[in-house]
Write a structure and sequence with these properties.
Helix 4 packs antiparallel against helix 5 and helix 7 (141-151) packs across helix 8. 35% of the residues lie in helices and 26% in strands. It has three domains: 5-103, Rossmann fold (3-Layer(aba) Sandwich), CATH 3.40.50.20; 132-201, ATP-grasp fold, A domain (Dna Ligase, domain 1, 2-Layer Sandwich); 207-448, D-amino Acid Aminotransferase, Chain A, domain 1 (2-Layer Sandwich). The protein has helices spanning 11-23, 40-44, 63-73, 89-97, 107-114, 116-125, 141-151, 174-192, 249-266, 296-303, 307-315, 394-407, 417-423, 427-431, 438-448; strands spanning 5-7, 28-33, 47-52, 77-79, 101-102, 155-159, 168-171, 197-201, 207-216, 221-233, 236-242, 269-279, 282-289, 332-339, 351-352, 355-357, 364-368, 375-376, 383-391, 409-411. By secondary structure, the protein is α+β, with helices and mostly antiparallel strands. It has an eight-stranded antiparallel sheet with strand order 13-12-9-10-11-14-19-17, sandwiched between helices. It has a five-stranded parallel sheet with strand order 3-2-1-4-5. The structure holds adenosine-5'-diphosphate (ADP). Adenosine-5'-diphosphate (ADP) binds next to strand 8, strand 12 and strand 13.
Length: 449
């Protein structure tokens, strides 16, 4: 195992990784910007190093400073968490060249999956069902129109280098195509520095269902079931659950096995998520994330497997502690992403938390980096914590979530907790009857009322 792990992240995920390290007896190093001096991950780590001023580019994305922190502290591995440098192939490469272990997949696999055109081609080759669309990138309007006519409108134009739900444009007919295509290209160019785009069939009312996988890097790999992340706002997940309310056991096993086989075929190492849109009983691959996901706890709750512990084991060369047969699903879990944002306008609400009381009791987990008296800096993502609830059935899980939400108090700032209190008693949510557009429609209707 590692001598010392440096955690190149902040907030709840830095704490999550720290906890896994501590249970394995591995000392941890926190890195932080000057805005995060009082953050919980800094307080709890064995050592901490300030790596720069508040802007992420100068701190959490600053490879040079992070490498220097490794050098000073003697850390022999880095866990990148999610976001920041977690899907940066160059970072993985630099670490390798300096004999520091990147706790994640190979630079090569990050690169392949980071280019969505290549990722899709790879998925197709590995036997994963993909969304119908262009074979590769599309560079001119004529080709774009031809491809769209072939697959049929509506279509979605997506940036090859896209991420975070950005860089996508829908065209409903040929008349809309010209503008959508050029806007998508120029937005992709300015947002990602790469204007390659590709075209896909636009699915009207799909669910977002993703499969958690783990590879041992030696040709072994397993799946840990699916998560349903269909409740989204601006293509960003808001509420995630496992198992999916719409998937039967046979379909679960089938898609799980396809993904596990793909991981084995790739020789993939560590945690990954194969994301699909699901419509009328069919799965369509959209992308693979080569890192730990925000929503990983729902999988942990129904499998009782610590995914960060497995990541550390695999990266250290110890292999997975479980086989496919050991993965037994039990009960239902739901996660709510709690943001420091106004629950109706979604305007960020940084500032000081004057009173904080998280919920507790059977089946309740709160992954958060905040505490009473803590001031949320304005420089970063507004996710301040996740409430994860586990119960024997979905119905029991919803009731427990309702109870836990009622107990949760965060004063001094605005949070999205009131939104979840509304959602948890909504008949469509109770029935599990929602697609990826449900939440946007719900919010728009509420706005009008
Ligand atoms: P990102 O990497 O930016 O998250 P994804 O490819 O994962 O991009 O897509 C994000 C979201 O965009 C999906 O969860 C879905 O809501 C929507 N989306 C993507 N592709 C399609 C499609 N072909 N049809 C309909 N919606 C789509």
């Amino acid at each position: 195992m590692f001598k010392k792990v440096l955690i190149a992240n902040r907030g709840e995920i830095a704490l999550r990784i720290l906890r896994a390290c501590r249970e394995l007896g591995i000392p941890t190093v926190a890195v932080h910007s000057t805005a995060d001096e009082t953050a919980m991950h800094v307080r709890l780590a064995d050592e901490s190093v300030c790596i720069g001023p508040p802007p992420s580019k100068k701190s959490y994305l600053n490879m040079h400073e992070i490498m220097a922190a490794c050098e000073i502290t003697g850390a022999d591995a880095i866990h990148p968490g999610y976001g920041f440098l977690s899907e940066n192939a160059k970072f993985a490469e630099v670490l390798e060249a300096h004999d520091i272990t990147f706790i994640g997949p190979s630079a090569e696999h990050i690169r392949i999956m980071g280019d969505k055109i290549e990722a899709k081609a790879t998925a197709r080759r590995l036997g994963i069902p993909v969304v119908p669309g262009s074979e590769g990138g599309v560079t001119d309007e004529e080709t774009a129109k031809r491809v769209a006519a072939d697959i049929g409108y509506p279509v979605i134009i997506k940036a090859a280098a896209g991420g975070g739900g950005r860089g996508m444009k829908v065209a409903r007919n040929e008349a809309e195509m010209s503008q959508a295509f050029h806007t998508a290209r120029s937005e992709a160019g300015s947002a990602f520095g790469d204007d390659s785009v590709y075209i896909e069939k636009y699915l009207a009312k799909p669910r977002h269902i993703e499969v958690q996988v783990m590879g041992d890097g030696k040709g072994g790999g397993i799946h840990l079931g699916e998560r349903d992340c269909s409740l989204q706002r601006r293509h960003q997940k808001v509420w995630e659950e496992a198992p999916s309310p719409v998937l039967g056991e046979a379909d679960r096993q089938k898609i799980g096995q396809i993904c596990a086989k793909a991981v084995q075929g790739l020789g993939y190492s560590g945690a990954g998520t194969v994301e699909f849109l699901w419509e009328d009983g069919e799965f369509y691959f959209i992308e693979m994330n080569t890192r730990l996901q925000v929503e990983h706890p729902v999988t942990e709750m129904i499998t009782r497997i610590d995914l960060v512990n497995e990541q550390l084991r695999v990266a250290a060369g110890d292999g997975l502690s479980v086989t496919q047969e050991d993965v037994i699903f039990s009960g239902h879990a739901i996660e709510c992403r709690i943001n420091a944002e106004h629950p109706e306008t979604f305007i960020p609400s940084p500032g000081k938390i004057s009173y904080y009381h998280p919920p507790g009791g059977l089946g309740v987990r709160v992954d958060s980096g905040v505490y009473q008296g803590y001031s949320i800096p304005p420089h970063y993502d507004s996710l301040i914590g996740k409430l994860i609830v586990h119960a024997r059935t979905r119905e029991e899980c919803l009731r427990r979530l309702h109870r836990a939400l009622d107990e949760f108090v965060v004063d001094g700032i605005e949070t999205t907790l009131p939104l979840f209190r509304d959602l948890v008693t909504n008949p469509d949510i109770e029935a599990g009857n929602y697609d990826i557009h449900w939440l946007e429609k719900y919010l728009a209707a509420r706005q009008e009322a």
